[in-house]
Fold these 2 entries.
Entry 1:
Amino acid sequence: MKFEINSDEKSLQVDFQANGEKLLINAPEGSMSLDVVQIQAGVYSVLMNNRSFVIGVCPHHNDRVNVNGTPVVLELLDAVHLHLRELGWDTVHELKAGLLSAQIPGLITKIFHKIGDKVNEGEPLFLIEAMKMENEIKAPVSGEIQRISVKEGQTVEKGTIIIEIG
Amino acid sequence: MKFEINSDEKSLQVDFQANGEKLLINAPEGSMSLDVVQIQAGVYSVLMNNRSFVIGVCPHHNDRVNVNGTPVVLELLDAVHLHLRELGWDTVHELKAGLLSAQIPGLITKIFHKIGDKVNEGEPLFLIEAMKMENEIKAPVSGEIQRISVKEGQTVEKGTIIIEIG
Amino acid sequence: MFKKILVANRGEIALRVMRTCREMGIEVVAVYSEADRTAPHVLFADEAYPIGASPSSESYLNFENVLRVARECQAEAIHPGYGFLSENTQFAQQVTHAGMVFIGPPAQAIKTMGDKTMARQSMLKTNVPVVPGTEEAIIDLGDALQIAKNIGFPVLIKAAGGGGGKGMRIVESAETFNESVGKAQRESQSAFGDGRVYIEKYLEEPHHIEFQILADTQGNIIHLNERECSIQRRYQKVIEESPSPFIHAELRAQMGLAAVETARSCNYVGAGTVEFLVDKHKQFYFLEMNTRLQVEHPVTEMVTGIDLVAEQIRIAFGRPLSIRQSEVKTSGHAIECRIYAEDPTQDFSPSTGEILMLQIPDGPGTRFDGAIRQGMKVTPYYDPMLGKLICWAGDREAALNRCERALREFYISGIETTIQFCRAVIKHPVFRKGPYDTHFYKQHKDELHQSLSTSNEEVLLVAGATLYHHKNRLNQSSKSSNQNKAQRSSWFTTQRGREGL
Amino acid sequence: MFKKILVANRGEIALRVMRTCREMGIEVVAVYSEADRTAPHVLFADEAYPIGASPSSESYLNFENVLRVARECQAEAIHPGYGFLSENTQFAQQVTHAGMVFIGPPAQAIKTMGDKTMARQSMLKTNVPVVPGTEEAIIDLGDALQIAKNIGFPVLIKAAGGGGGKGMRIVESAETFNESVGKAQRESQSAFGDGRVYIEKYLEEPHHIEFQILADTQGNIIHLNERECSIQRRYQKVIEESPSPFIHAELRAQMGLAAVETARSCNYVGAGTVEFLVDKHKQFYFLEMNTRLQVEHPVTEMVTGIDLVAEQIRIAFGRPLSIRQSEVKTSGHAIECRIYAEDPTQDFSPSTGEILMLQIPDGPGTRFDGAIRQGMKVTPYYDPMLGKLICWAGDREAALNRCERALREFYISGIETTIQFCRAVIKHPVFRKGPYDTHFYKQHKDELHQSLSTSNEEVLLVAGATLYHHKNRLNQSSKSSNQNKAQRSSWFTTQRGREGL
């Protein structure tokens, strides 16, 4: 499966392939064989071409990984998102914290809250159906819902502001 | 509930009473209030009259308890066994390792093995029905079954040798 | 010797004190708040008593409750640790009135040194140099401005009633003087309930260097050399070491004498710390005295081999010091890193949660004074310090190498910590070289934070692959437990922290 | 300096060596068996390579595999730790032939000192006293009996090809001599594949005292004082300390010289240990030389401040010793307790399983060299040693108090350990007093084991109540998950270990 790994500084195109117990990576940097074994909930011992790493996945932010004690912030994009971007849709876009806009056109199938509701970071906000898939959008920050600009059943264009959390 | 706590050297008669989050003990040694909080699977922080203990229950032998790092071997007898003993039946009796005899009269309802089987410590050996309760008897040691002296459906007297593990 | 001591504290310092008590054959009593029922100090103690709700104002700072427990359990002495009640004159007095021993200096010494202007006044009667400035809190703004002009700008305005950088202002020129005094007074009032401020000379390239002293009830006072504490952020120490890479033997001897004189001037008894500022010309000035055990005391323990808590307890029991000044021998080099539950990438905001995996460094020359365990929850109620890593080796370079190794080995998952931030400092060439000053963090902030977030391609690749594996696992296990739910959403749509889809 | 070192070992010693490598800026390579894929030394290393199946004969002892990995990863040197390949002459030679550095003595020194009769013969050419006995392996029983009579009964029969008490017999009189020789030969043959045995004088109240030496390639040899190792069970050391409470300064100097002479006699290079027996008249005799890092080396590290692994690596790289004999300074007292996964109440049978909760002691003067973590499984494949607790303090009494505190603080659940057994030794009045000999365990066995199992009423009560609480919890959770199953049997019928219902 094709993926893109992004950090603030770098972007890597990779292809992951499960091979029995091992995971193979093909990347422009070369081919790598990974042996990943869980040693604790969310903590893995990883041997990548025999280099040894202890890697913990943060339970709160799963874009935050601890590699040999060092925090690494990264983003993992799968084929769907890569495809969307090829079509000119930016799947990742810096926005004001708490301002959620549609980065793909789609159908709002469900909104879980009303204005004034208090939501916690990670709580589901709404479902948007796009590319025949239903996507659950979670609250990026905790706060109170200040604005809901759409209704269930409404089709939205790319860029439409949907919810604002204050 | 009345219990008896036995070690090689001592025997204590106690009465346990749950009181909300606390456990009350009445014993000839006095009355005690226990605050028991689990800190890890099978490991408890216990405050008994404000004395602090860390107590681990061994997952393999639940007659073995680790108190502040020191292993303590003990036996906890409930009302049924205390009653049996009042009737003159000795529920606890030192025997050669691997020699299992009936310490209560009862009906053998199930034998799980045949002669020559290898069993591991803790594996169920047979079921005996007594006092309208079915009791599962586990292998006290690992080894090979040398002798089975009874059949399923047989009623046995107190002291009858049932199985020998060599 | 005492038979039973109550430790009126929590966290690593409670554990630290209890360890020595147990080594001395003394029973230890813990007190705990609601949030701390299963905290390490409760598990360690021989006895433990609840003293109130989770906020420290309702438990660890509530000295009626602490005294009630001390009487109930028949403790003969109370060790206050640092923070909480350790520098509370009233508490020290009440402990004594209740017929128990307060393990710390006499209440009068706490009082004298606790008030910064009173301490300055007291020090001006000695030969110990004090940073030039006002002798009393500012009353008349006009007089104050004249003093500031005499000292020469820039000057510092500081709170009389507390520390930690609150109520502190650097004033560059006469124009902004009045305005800055007003701000400092208001900040000081809201932080300490005491709006008094005073003026001090602002020193160039200052080093924060402190001396450990020990004084017994027989009037013997010795010092155990210095600790260099110039690595600070927001006026909070981060890394301390001994010996200081900045001072030489002659200066050490002079400052040691000044520290002893300081302790003598306030009739000090027990363990204490005299803090100095040393400028780039190697002129030193008395800054303040901390009348308690210091967070960074293990640094001194590791170079001198002396157990400071044991000395505190022996002194409190009335014993004379176990060594003379001439018998104090130091060897090698020690360095301490404070490990906080804070996120250095989010401006050191406190991080709470459950410690999922914990690996504490160990091995040669490696000590961790902490109070954490795997599976434990870090709550938002108290100081975010998880513990202190202290490394010793034969010389400074070896000690830094050891410290870097130990920090690399330190693994905490589930919460964010300052482990990697400390590593960034230890690796920094200016720190490596030695004579850094208190501006180190401010001057190198960007480099330090950049080295925290930089990762090479190998690390990014292995991190990405492991994240893929992890999500795959979660996805598969959720698929098998709930077919519908898993199909409803693409499992890679979770976006980065602050972005929408 | 070397850029990359392969550590051909596992467990605590692999981790110990790797820590120093990392401090020296050297990349470390781990090798691992199937059972050890997630062992601590694999997690610690920069690189890790599989070398075979779980039994050590197919992995850690398979030196073709180790050498293949060393070549593949381009290691410049191999550290063998102790045990496994550390005293294998052939391995040392092959490492050198492959163009890498073996971090240990020259193969010839290993060979000379590895064979006990060869070592005796070599030592008879020096001034170092050797325990009176046969110079060669017994061939003629008649001659041997005559020698035994000359030495005087009782005598010891010992295996030439190995240690650890296997193939060893004490013979009290001439009558049982021939029979005992036969038994020792057969035992020796089956244990070491070498049936040769020899005779030694049996010493009265012997002390096992060893000297740490360091020798560089330039011919400098120094010693770092002694370790007292007389606390043994089944000829295995349990507790070691330095300084020895038995020897005085003059004897220490004499024995130190003898140790250096021993090392010189076999052209020794690297770190090594010369073992002596000292009888009750303070006469000392050469026993054997261990041509590798010793399990108990941290005891010496803590009193001298010298990192022995760093010295080994520097010596192997060709550097001269970093200190002279006159510069060796010791301070305080250190004591080591070996923590085994063994059940002291079941004749020290190995205990395997998962470590459910782990609390490693820490704080002042407390070091743990181990390789364990919470959630890790202890397998039956390797040596049951989990690690070593080493405590340092200013004097012996304080060190013992600290050790007792640390052992009390040490908590491992899920497997049985020797933690409490060590505590029983440390608390024993004869050990506390000091000059114990190698018969200590034999003589005090019953008291030690009794103190392990004794518990007062308070402990029994709290243990019983917690067990009740635990079973109640389990019962309730199984009731809610499976109503039928829970009703089938009374949940308090589980009987004590070896009893039937």
Entry 2:
Amino acid sequence: MSLTPDELAAVVARDIPPNSYVNLGIGQPTKVADHLGADAGIVLHTENGMLNMGPAATGDQIDPDLTNAGKVPVTELPGASYFHHADSFLMMRGGHLDVCVLGAFQVSAAGDLANWHTGAPDAIPAVGGAMDLAIGAKQVFVMMTLFDKKGRPKLVPQCTYPLTGLRCVSRVYTDLAIIDVGPDGASVRETFGVTLDELRKRLDVPLA
Amino acid sequence: MSLTPDELAAVVARDIPPNSYVNLGIGQPTKVADHLGADAGIVLHTENGMLNMGPAATGDQIDPDLTNAGKVPVTELPGASYFHHADSFLMMRGGHLDVCVLGAFQVSAAGDLANWHTGAPDAIPAVGGAMDLAIGAKQVFVMMTLFDKKGRPKLVPQCTYPLTGLRCVSRVYTDLAIIDVGPDGASVRETFGVTLDELRKRLDVPLA
Amino acid sequence: MIAGSVDEAVAGIEDGSTVLVGGFGFAGMPFDLIDGLIRQGATDLTIVSNNAGNGDVGLAALLKAGRVRKVVCSFPRQADSYVFDELYRSGRIELEVVPQGNLAERMRAAGAGIGAFFCPTGVGTPLAEGKETRTIDGRDYVLEYPIKGDVALISAHRADRMGNLVYRKTARNFGPVMATAATRTIVQVSEVVPTGDLDPEAVVTPGIFVDRVVRVEARNYTVQGAR
Amino acid sequence: MIAGSVDEAVAGIEDGSTVLVGGFGFAGMPFDLIDGLIRQGATDLTIVSNNAGNGDVGLAALLKAGRVRKVVCSFPRQADSYVFDELYRSGRIELEVVPQGNLAERMRAAGAGIGAFFCPTGVGTPLAEGKETRTIDGRDYVLEYPIKGDVALISAHRADRMGNLVYRKTARNFGPVMATAATRTIVQVSEVVPTGDLDPEAVVTPGIFVDRVVRVEARNYTVQGAR
């Protein structure tokens, strides 16, 4: 069976080593936090200036001065720290984070990422921290469905949407398979409810 | 009468506007602090990471974790702040200080500064913060004797010692005269126990 | 240093200024100073901020008042950025989209006297088009230039009378960087304390970067994400 | 994160490493870690530090033990830098003199992923000879490259068990910058407190930059300037 978004988040969480410093992108990657073991010592970074971010705030916990990068109110865990934007992006761009988990429109077999712009001519461009996150961790994981709503593959030989970063993704987690990408091309690690041969037929990318 | 070093320090202090942020270089410029009015609101910066540095520490005040750039123990005034070296030099190099007061071997009429190296072939080079200070304030004042021990002028058409900075000095305070320097050449503001004509005879630099 | 009112704090901002505006969404947004700027009347402004306004308040109100020629930001498009969206789609405002980290680092560079820097973000993307690139030690970089402000409007938590500042939680965001990058830095705070009351080890923005401080009443702004 | 001893903290430093060593004179100098490094035995080191040792302790002892191939610093020559002076004059050590601000900014660049930067310090001086220069907006700059460490040895005041650090007065100096610039950052502190005891607003070096922490006894080092 293919994975539900929650099951997929659990699989990503399973693969994050204990004591890692991790940034979870806006949207589906945020769900990964719900599956991280409390004892794993994983520290969440939010690029608006905080380490050891806690879960979403509820009720009286809501503090307008304490939000995540999606502007959702969050909480603070013991051992947290606050810092300004240049220091926060220094952490990313300087390669200090262990893992970033991002969403994507497309990922190429070489690890190129397209996740900030659909290329639609009337769209208002907005990049936020996407390009910094793309190059901002020792490992960049992408979480996405393997096919879009029209059934087109999102793992592609070459991205056709505008790029967010070149050769920056190390692994793609999808509802149907976990696939390593990079200089050696795409290599399937695990499949869910589908065979490798079926994947090969549906993707334009050679799969090892 | 020519000025004593203490009188010269008092003259420099007189010319620092109230509420300025000021860095006083190692050596003779340090004396300027003794002549700053307590009410003038002048804030001293030390490049090893502090604003609102107080006077030298004595007796029980001495704390090995609190020194100035000359590694002399100092004190902290109310409203002080501490910061790391990159932030401290950001203040200088970003032009946030109002005044730096430095010593010099030579200053050119155009405002070039030589104060870090005599050019002696056996000298061990050591620059410290000199080059950052030279370009690190809205106004750079130099304090020096106008002639060296051998009677040679230290205000020169061109520096012969290795440079610390190009066109960075705005004014030279000496025992015999206060002289503006810069793109328009040297211009005497005030003399002490010497006439302008006498200065013209002893210097190789045209004086306005 | 301590202004008696918001209007006094923002006095003298000139038409055509580049104004750095703190805040990430609503957290750290200097609402009172922006309202003061609207009353003050300066126009033809270039605004540098992470976003381009939400709802009808803060930056959105300044945009709506027609004072802004250009916005430099990382993320203009949001669920409630309808004021910006309409100005942009009708061609009445210019937009420069800058990756968030570049926005922060370019302002830091302005504050630090750096002339330009080779940056890893954006290499090979449309936002690097036409920019100088260089390979250094096997990695590709794009050359980015400083963003300097004539004025910064920021919000902090507490100030002392010398302008030393501390912030609160993630409302810190761009404030400390913008304070270094502007010719004149104007700060709204919830509290002004006597000089000496802030811990010198915990000052985030030293007063050297601050020109005017004004105390404002705490405002119960809506948390965007909670809607 | 928390090492049981200095020897455990410095274990594994390899011959030929570039080691960033905190401190400005004696303030912030990680004496215990340096002594540990001498015992540990790594040699052929490049040391990056503001000075090149004073008297017979700290960096001077490491130099005297013959472990250092090259020193990168801003100010090697001091009244009591006789160990360095003799090594240098007898040609047994290399020296790269770097303006103090460049030393800090080049390490920050390493920490921040910046490939190189155009810097105003040193233009037209012997320390810029042979370096690329460029005029940007009418001002001249020199291109400077990052200084990255394999290891940083620094001293802080307090750490929590996650490696968050606070410093004390001007002993902060290069510590926070070096912590960002090294692959492995090793810190000696006077006190380890439970996680949650440091004010999140006042943490200077977040634990993400710290690899090992060891508590050491306070040492009554001589204040240089007081001699």
